[in-house]
Amino acid sequence: MRQSQLLATTLREAPAEAETANHQLLLRAGYIRQLAAGIYTYLPLGRRVLRKIEQIVHEEMGAAGAQEILMPAMQPAELWKESERYEVYGKELIKLQDRHDREFVLGPTHEEVITSLVRGEINSYRRLPLTVFQIQTKFRDERRPRSGLLRGREFLMKDAYSFDTSWDGLDESYVRMYNAYQRIFERCGLLYRAVHADSGAIGGEGGSHEFMALSEIGEDTIGVCSVCDYAANLELAEVRSPEGEQEVRTIRGDQPAAEKFHTPDIRTIEQLEQELHIQPEEIIKTLIYEANGQFYAVLVRGDHEVNEHKVTKMIGASNISLADYQAVQHAAGVESGYVGPVGLSLTVLVDSAVAAMESGIAGAGEKDYHLRGVVPGRDFSLKHVGDLRNVLEGEACPNCGQGVLHFHQGIEIGHVFKLGTKYSEKLGATYLNDSGKSAPMIMGCYGIGISRLLAAVAEQNHDEQGLIWPQALAPYNVHILLMSTKDKEQTAVAERLYAQLTSLGIDTLYDDRDERAGVKFKDSGLIGIPVAIIVGKDAAAQSVEYMDRKASTKEVLDITEAVMRIAGTLK
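RESULT FIELD:
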């Protein structure tokens, strides 16, 4: 491609709204342009990168036995109501009506559509197992679209679905997809981790894993063991109890009764620390949550944070929310900061670390007062005890116990789920087994954010000059920079080199523009093609400069050697 004809305008400064490196560079280098908040046009350079990602995905999905289909983006709302997810997605669903007032949604995902399709196509165990996939545009009405392609309202996604006759079959399908995802991300040159994760709004009865591209701008925190391969999203990372610690501590009979003392205007953990000269681990923190129309008190130590996902799982709710000031007053009879578990007429959920305390300081349930010497199991019930807190960095690994957990930020780029019969039962996707009896299909779901993957690769691969694409994803394999269009020898060498490379099937971008050398170097650095061939003063000797973008090295080669080097690199 001759750069003089390429639709790619580079920008010297990034727009003010672009905060992350990938967003800034993809805009500045002419890969994308924003149409509206969270909605982008892919210019030719960006589309070429997407195509290369898609090609890798196609190859690995095919190798894993998946067949490609394409489903509609516009879906009948009735399907979403049938699966009972219409209200779960809520305002994230983009809704519309046709001229007959029939309600539709723009699909954020396709579990309903694929289940509806398969229930009409397959009715016998003889046609299972089956795995299908598509690459399709998805739509979610994000409250705050941000970070460019990482959180948009319209995005490109690969979603795959497996259908099996047994859980063992689902396990096999899951492993195939899991392994395929590893190959995809490795081929894309990503530094990533697969972590235990929550299934979220997709749901399901089995496990799930998220694939996280490691990055400081990632919205998710993951705990990774320093020794074994354990890795989990913070919301799922388990706390390992110290060896020999009893689940319920034995209560001694010689402990004095809890003592109430005056703490005027002292509401926070920090204030208690400063005024009483105590450590936060001596404090029992009581938080009020609302779920399923009821209020619950959750107890954690003062140095710990409540893990709302774990609380949700303990009480079997679909979601929970921290009670506001008025709700706390109504539920606990006292304002926030003085709520405590003693005498509280609510269900009390106790974190294991609190249950193991000899005694602690807690709110007295009365304004401007706290209690010291509060004993778990004596002064409040230990009926509901479990792991209800976030792990801390440096804690022991819950899997091997030998290593410690280190925290990393991650960008979610893929997610695999064991759905089980969540959708097949609700939508009637059944088959006749070998005994002639009807049974629901066992499903799995596997997604990769294609456009998000592009942004994640850009975030991991850049320097102060601009992008540095891995060879497998680069929009072009080689960038020829003609230093002077007025120099006949340079022009002849550049044209000859361009013809040779394109005849070999090597994707080549040829900067034939009548621009200063400095402009061409800056644009080349921004665009980030892995290899640049500089045709300049050495052209008279039939030589060029070969520049490795990532290593920032240059060497002079004759034209034939340069072509051979490029061809060898691509092999």
